[in-house]
């Protein structure tokens, strides 16, 4: 996958990385939509591609397949032997081949499908220029020194790993890749290779924070701080505090597939070092300020499109413009026009506030806002408090219909190992009421062994919303509490 | 000057910084050529501008003048009071003024005259895009952390201080400026402000290396290494060794006014740390490899325009192309076409070799090559050996006519304090012959109290070439040695 980020564009083609955790049906939809001509696939994912090919309509020719053999895998089976392998393809290559330079720097380099897209896939097209700018920007923003050792916990199929395949090449980095990302493999890789940098969604931070002592004991005692860049959701304060104590220095940013990578960075001020731990965590959970190649970030009123006051309270839609905003969605002019409007701004669909010091803070994806008795409740804010509870492993808050209020917050929780049975729904609600306005506290708490996740590790809120809807409305009076079966998997 | 780098482009104008050490005649030529409408000048340089204005032809309207008052200067005199001052201008400003964004990123942002240009000034025009790219690149290449403290020993009028005015703003740097750059003021500023980074030509390194103990004693004992970026000429190995011992970490690059800043960097490999000191200095004196925004660097045969072998020996002209090559010379299409040729490459006029590991090493400016008995002699190589001599302060080697060989190397030297009289021309020639092929060793050695310099601190080789020519040809037989009067100033 790393080599593909160079070889594919250098051959004049466009790279479309596909999430290997998708099902065959979705893969078939994406292959059709993208019109891919050639598929590189490793042995472990070959069956998925075969299944996807079978689902392609007869008029759609299946792409050519090149199998990438992993020397650590079992020897190739009879079937693979009949296919072209990556290594055999390379052997037929011309060492004097002159790489195909883009005619314009605005030519496409990658196509990235956003998640949750089986019905109408949204294919984000990015150009050479955008990925160049953002790759450089993050080297500056993160002060990446020459020859870092970078651990891939973030997948390269996830927004091209936030453009770090290219960034690591600029600084001559070593790339450490894992077949499986678990606390044990991550800690072992850090210890073995002297990892200096890694990126990951907060779910990875959470994994690092709650690793067993056995997994963690691999770390050398005098280990240098590992730089961690996180994004995709605000890191819960409690998780931040924990991983920083374990030897990780966390940077935090915000971006979307449509912006090629994170484009807002919670740039840290030295004077904040002196603040109490909880205050530092609160500041670090803010998304931050624009990075150089983003011309502007703003929060606007959805109706008037005018900037909301910079008061840290008034919510609005987060809008962006600058060097790494996508060219558009492939084969979807309507969606492109809805996203990049006639005023030249990209409308993210995310809800945020602008603080007086110019730092952006995300409040919610628009659809995740809970509107209860006329009040907007940010599910992220409620989750942040829930993560502070000592027994909580993961938390997700969605709207549940409410007889009186229209909607009310409903919390889905998984507990830490050994914490099951030690805490009740009422405890959780009481915990929240002590820490936030009463109307914001969940009226329903559901315990689960695990929360449902997308293939990229994001909690599937739409699944939880469906469950909450099926529960029916909460009634007047005392809150409803539900203890879900500990064994229910979703 | 720092504020001008932002205010001028943000008002929609183009910034042309003028070297304050130029004479009135040259300043008048530049003002005419550029068609400047407005001149910002500080009180100490006001007389220079007045003199220049008097030399403008009557049909050329003198630009409007804004005086920048320095609070440390004497109180403004009666004359200044009648002029608009910068502070008074700012008071009339509109706080709601919306800054003028360039229509295209290819719009010009700066005009920089290359040195030695009174007869036909060469005005290099750079665009927003180029300066943006190079400013970002050097933050990456030099691993500049957030909030550095940057000392201005390099003038901002010298190629816009290699674009660091903008770069420092990106990382929130503090800018420390000096009225006079001397060893004492530089060491004092480092100690007082905790300087982390500075740029300077090798002449600055030399100044730091040979500072008196009194000047150096300001440095705190546990001072963190100061990062120094040098370019403009290869740093002599002996000077490099000395300043690194004094607490400076030197990075080295190569560029021209036409490329906005340094575009080739002697990217350091950790394995080189283990080499002997002299070998490390030799490697660090090489110019290096391209930085990200430079698409390509090559050394080509002047006739065939084809790449020379990467053998570290075959010389050719250094050619460049990429993101920060100038738009062209102002009002001079012919010079522009001669520099940026129909093949899309910028021809630097500098002579270099390409090493097998892809590192560029400059051998000479084309006109500085000495051709002796059919052999090309790099004056830089000879100077490098001369700098290694313990008594030598500064060295410059030029061609002197030679009866037998056509040309022969002639060395001009200034000696370190107290070294006058301790070394003879024969000693110097013997020193060189021990360390290089005989044909390369100087046949003439001239001692001077000081070597002639341009206003930007470069040694004026053309002055020395004239002197060497006037000496007449060296004759067959033993080398000619000349001990110049220690008091002659040039």
UniProtKB/TrEMBL annotation, chains A, B:
Organism domain of life: Eukaryota
Annotated EC: 6.2.1.12
Comp. bias regions, Low complexity: 472-482
Residue span, AMP-binding enzyme C-terminal domain: 381-458
Cofactor (UniProt): Mg(2+)
Catalytic activity: (E)-4-coumaroyl-AMP + CoA = (E)-4-coumaroyl-CoA + AMP + H(+); (E)-4-coumarate + ATP + CoA = (E)-4-coumaroyl-CoA + AMP + diphosphate; (E)-4-coumarate + ATP + H(+) = (E)-4-coumaroyl-AMP + diphosphate
Listed Pfam families: AMP-binding, AMP-binding_C
Major enzyme class: ligase
PROSITE patterns: AMP_BINDING
GO molecular function, one term: 4-coumarate-CoA ligase activity
GO BP terms: phenylpropanoid metabolic process
Residues of the AMP-dependent synthetase/ligase domain: 1-330
Keywords associated with the record: Ligase, Magnesium
Location of the region described as Disordered in the Swiss-Prot/TrEMBL record: 470-490
Family statement drawn from the similarity comment of this UniProt entry: Belongs to the ATP-dependent AMP-binding enzyme family.
Record-given protein name: 4-coumarate--CoA ligase
Species in which this protein is naturally found: Eleusine coracana subsp. coracana
């Amino acid at each position: 996958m790393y080599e593909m980020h160079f070889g594919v564009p250098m051959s004049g083609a466009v790279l479309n990385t596909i999430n290997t955790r998708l099902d065959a049906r979705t893969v078939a939809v994406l292959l059709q939509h993208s019109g891919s001509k050639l598929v590189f696939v490793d042995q472990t994912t070959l069956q998925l591609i075969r299944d996807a090919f079978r689902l392609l309509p007869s008029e759609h020719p299946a792409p050519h397949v090149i199998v990438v053999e992993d020397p650590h895998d079992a020897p190739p089976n009879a079937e693979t032997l009949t296919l072209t392998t990556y290594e055999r393809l390379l052997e037929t290559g011309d060492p004097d081949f002159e790489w195909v330079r883009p005619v314009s720097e605005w030519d496409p380099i990658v196509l990235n499908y956003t998640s949750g897209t089986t019905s109408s896939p949204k294919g984000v097209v990015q150009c050479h220029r955008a990925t160049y700018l953002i790759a450089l920007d993050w080297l500056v923003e993160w002060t990446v020194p020459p020859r870092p050792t970078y651990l891939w916990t973030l997948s390269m199929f996830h927004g091209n790993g936030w453009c770090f395949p290219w960034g690591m090449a600029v600084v001559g980095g070593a790339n450490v890749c894992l077949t499986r990302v678990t606390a044990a493999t991550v800690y072992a890789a850090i210890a073995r290779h002297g990892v200096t940098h890694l990126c990951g969604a907060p779910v990875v931070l959470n994994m690092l924070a709650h690793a067993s002592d056995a997994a963690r004991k691999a770390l050398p005692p005098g280990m240098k701080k590992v730089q961690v860049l996180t994004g995709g959701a605000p890191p819960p304060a409690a998780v931040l505090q924990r991983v920083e104590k374990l030897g990780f220095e966390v940077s935090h940013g915000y971006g979307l597939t449509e912006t090629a990578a994170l484009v807002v960075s919670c740039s840290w001020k030295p004077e904040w070092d002196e603040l109490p731990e909880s205050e530092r965590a609160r500041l670090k959970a803010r998304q931050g300020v624009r990075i150089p190649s983003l011309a502007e970030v703003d929060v606007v009123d959805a109706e008037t499109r005018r900037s909301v006051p910079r008061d840290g309270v008034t919510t609005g839609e987060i809008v962006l413009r600058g060097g790494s905003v996508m060219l558009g969605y492939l084969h979807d002019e309507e969606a492109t026009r809805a996203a990049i409007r006639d005023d030249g701004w990209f409308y993210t669909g995310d809800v945020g506030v602008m603080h007086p010091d110019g730092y952006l803070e995300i409040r919610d994806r628009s659809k995740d806002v809970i509107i209860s008795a006329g009040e907007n409740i940010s599910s992220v804010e409620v989750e942040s408090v829930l993560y502070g509870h000592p027994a909580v492993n993961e938390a997700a808050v969605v709207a549940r219909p409410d007889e009186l209020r229209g909607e009310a917050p409903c919390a889905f929780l998984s507990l830490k190992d050994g914490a099951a049975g030690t805490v009740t729904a009422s405890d959780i609600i009481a915990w929240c009421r002590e820490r936030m306005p009463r109307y914001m506290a969940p009226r329903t708490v559901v315990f689960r062994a695990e929360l449902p996740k997308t293939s990229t590790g994001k909690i599937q809120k739409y699944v939880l919303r469906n469950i909450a809807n099926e529960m029916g409305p909460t009634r007047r009076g005392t809150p409803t509490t539900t203890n879900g079966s500990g064994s229910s998997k979703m």
